[in-house]
Design brief:
mainly beta; nine-stranded mixed β-sheet; 15 strands; globular
């Protein structure tokens, strides 16, 4: 990844809409190296990541957010659910402008499921991205229409992540992913 995730410096709220802004600017931060542990590194970009890891986790239910993605730069934007380790993970969506592709997926114990499709038309406005997750199925929806589904093999509470970053150099910055709201429901 090319960006350094700042401590909320790249998160802004205007008119009740939260923006995660990816910028071209120098920063120094820590990165993880599997052999050496945390190392100091210089970055040319900054961005933001929000997580409910310390405040909210839920197993099963509906997770949704009203989001406008940005397609003006190769910014990787995501709304996802995560566990304690690399897996399990449910990508409610990941959008990468380099590929112009929307990815909806779930990962657990090396197995992957989901769908990919052209998503550049989704950058024009706010859309509601939803995952309905129960003991047997994961269903992805955009504006209420199911666009993918998979059998569920994830059975632990997950936390919410909202993030934007870069996996290649970019010049057309800043770029913002805008979040109007996030909602979570449990089946009663």
């Amino acid at each position: 990844e090319k960006q350094y995730f700042t401590d909320n410096k790249n998160v802004d709220i205007k008119n009740s809409v939260l923006s995660i802004v990816t910028k071209k600017e120098k920063a120094t931060g820590k990165v993880w190296d599997a052999k050496l542990g945390f190392m100091t590194k210089d970055f040319d970009y900054t961005s933001g990541m929000l997580s409910t890891a310390n405040s909210f986790r839920q197993q099963y239910g509906r997770f949704e957010a009203k989001i406008r993605i940005n397609s003006e730069a190769p910014v990787y934007q995501a709304f996802w659910l995560k566990g304690e380790h690399k897996e399990p993970e449910i990508d409610i969506f990941k959008y990468n402008i380099k590929k112009g592709q929307m990815q909806l997926s779930a990962y657990n114990k090396g197995a992957a499921a989901g769908n990919k499709f052209g998503g550049s038309g989704l950058a024009k406005d706010f859309f509601i991205y939803t995952v309905d997750w129960d003991a047997s199925k994961i269903s992805w929806k955009i504006n209420g229409y199911e666009v993918a589904s998979a059998s569920n093999n994830i059975n632990e509470p997950l936390f919410i992540m909202l993030s934007a970053g870069l996996n290649q150099a970019a010049d057309n910055l800043p770029a913002a992913m805008q979040i109007d709201w996030v909602r979570c429901y449990e089946k009663a």
